[in-house]
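Methods: example folding runs. The two proteins below were folded one after another, and each record is reproduced exactly as written to the output file, sequence line first and structure-token line second.
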Amino acid sequence: MIDLLTHIQDLKLFEPGARVVVAVSGGADSVALLDLLRRLDAGSLRLVVAHLNHSLRGEHSDADQAFVAALAAGYGLSFVAERRDVAALARELGTSLEDAGRRARYDFLAGVAREHQASCIALAHHRDDQAETVLMRLLRGAGGSGLRGMGLSRGMLKRPLLRVSRADIECYLKEKGLSWRNDASNDDTEFLRNSIRHELLPLLGRYNPKVSERLAATAEILAADEELLGQVTDAAYRRLLLPGTAEPSFSVAGLAREPRGLRLRLYRRALAEQRGDLQRIALTHLEAIDRLAGSERPNARLNLPGTCLVLRSYDRLSFAAAESADGDFDVAVAGPGEYRLTGGRTLRVSLVERPERLDAGAPSAAFFDPQAAPFPWTVRSFRPGDRFSPLGMAGTQKVKDLFINNKIPAPQRGRIPLLVSGDRIIWLAGVRMGERARVTAASGLVLKAEILDITL
């Protein structure tokens, strides 16, 4: 039998004297973990026992909580428990009990770690859990990043038993004379993980008795590969990301020079940056983005789950939140001052001395003759049919044509502020000054308009 205490010491996951939140359900694995950590480094770790009551099994759930509370008291450790209605959470999120429970647990544990200023959270996942996780993700169609399974150490999460079998854990419990709670729901094969544990893994074991060990080893190999590929992706992301854009954007020509596998990883990275996660994003979505990037159409858009848009505009491929891609705005400007616009931007208007250079501060600032641009002004979004007299031009031009000539991506045209005095557009912010309100050599004090945080 493996010496579990020596095994955990050799992993060096915990600094001596560290404050560690230990997730304890009351089951065999977490009871063993708590006892081991209590003995680790001669008991120098400052442990906080954390238990989440899922409110799924009535008095049995309450009995689990009471058991863990008594266990913590017996060790003289701090104990934190919380009750959450996981069934209600699953209904609210439209997800399974398994997924809702997982989310609730990690949220609870993160909160306990913050409250107690812990450096890490210890979880009792073992090698058999890892094998089940790999199979679950394989059945759901995961790629390399999913098939790498759980990490021995990822961020604050530490899994000291991840390379240890369930059989080794049970031997340790018997050796130490420790008792634990059995959760009857773990035998319910209506849950996917339980079905894999009790039905699929035993079946695969007929072909390879060490199937759990081999699956866990495969996960470790993939984790190492993913670490390397992640570094390659990060370097390519920094190299190919277009500067000065509010959302992740790439040159279509630049993407075309990269291998398909790297392009798909770049799309995943950009989606994660924009959305915050990759939930409901599958290979079909990544392939659709790749087709959009390789399309001959200069302007197109792709709607993805999670209110995310991928926008193709000439040579630019952008990943934008749906709510920020469009949206009309119309703000009255009574005089000098600051005016809030959409997207966290601000219009600042001030009366200043005529600068020596009128292009100072361009493209986010412009100067106007107060006599030629009387208040009130309006700052608004583009409307079909808008016409404009660009600086140096006697007649007018369609604003849409100006956008096209300047290769302003179609989805971004609605974000560009148009400054209007009376019924005349005097400035396309960040694009072009107008002729009719331009400052002349005879002008004294002039009006300065600035769009703060402007990004085209």
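Second run, written to the same file directly after the first:
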Amino acid sequence: MRAPPLFHLYVAATVLLAPFVAWFEIRKLRRQGLSALRAHEKMGHASQPRIGSGNLIWFHAASVGESLSVLALITRMGEMLPRAHFLITSGTPTSAKLVADRMPPRTVHQFAPLDAGGPLTRFLHHWRPAAAIFVESELWPRMLRMTRARGTMMALVNARLSAKSRAAWARRPGFAAYVLDVFDLILTQNDDMAQAMVDMHAPADRVARGSNLKSMSAPLPQNPALLAQIRTAIKARPIWVAASTHKGEETTVLDAHKTLLQTIPDLLLILVPRHPDRSDEVAKLIAKHDLTYALRSDGALPRDDHAVYLADTLGELGNWYALSDVVFLGGSLLPIGGHNPFEVVQSEAAVLSGPHVTNFAETINKMVETGAAEIVADVEALTFSVGHLLQDGAHKAASLRAARAFVQGKSDELTRIAARLIHILKLEDDNR
């Protein structure tokens, strides 16, 4: 396909702007504590050697959520391709740290090169990927076309574009068709997005509905030593978790907990704000409800007289999920979009969620249909559902069975997606 004039204009702009963008990006990474060696990955200078003699499969994601969403897929593809190695690129130090903490076997992380000729040439020459898999909305024109020009097989997975992005691409149909033509396969999150990609002039015969990879994410990490400490401290107390709560939701959670204490007096709430820097604000709210609490960031453990354990730290959510069969998932009582319910059921817990779950609508709806999740719209519904799960053993057992079945179904679906990518990207030979 011939490059449209707008693509040539974009290339010219990157030539002019690359030195300034490079200075800004490297300076930003250095200020965030990265070494000069790692910061210069933005310029395509690899900080690690190319690994292995087999095929290298490159995954490119933008930020934390997208990076973490593909770790389970990398792991599954690695099981199916034991000689393959993997490279994951992203753009933020936070994503780099979290990926490093959960790195699948035979995988390395690098910061993504700038979308400019020099950085991309160095990057592609060093890593020589056999296949490149881009995640969600990472559509950098030069990166895509230069990767394809090397003969690399390419896919877009978990494809998702906002209405604003779709409208912008729709105004440039020739440019959109030229960029999207690089992909051998485009897997979208749902049918609506599949149609949107076709409307944006993606090749219709290469577009298919996939699934939201965030609903197949790898299990959250746990700290066995910490879990042993907490379990010793709480003994046999009943527990429920309110995770990833946002401003305006903690009041509902604490009102529900206060009511539940009237019938379950030794009940412990583990409250995990989405943003730990809100710790002081949430602590004041707990005190305003006349509830006693311990603070995780102080290193404290919950005592028998503590009604709430305020878990105001990052990266420990897997521990709190492991402690309870009942988890309310925040970001859902208000129009925020919700958070990942699959991480909860992977820990064999029942999910309670508010109604505002646009980010995971398909996942939550299927979980509700199977009994692995319940929707609670207000404090009365939250109080009833938590109490019902804690006090009705048969109801809780049925919810947990549904959760386990949902996890198994997603595991099978992940295998199918991995097998499809391996086939379309012609990676089968690396399994010999």
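Comment on the second run: The chain has two domains: 5-218, 224-391.
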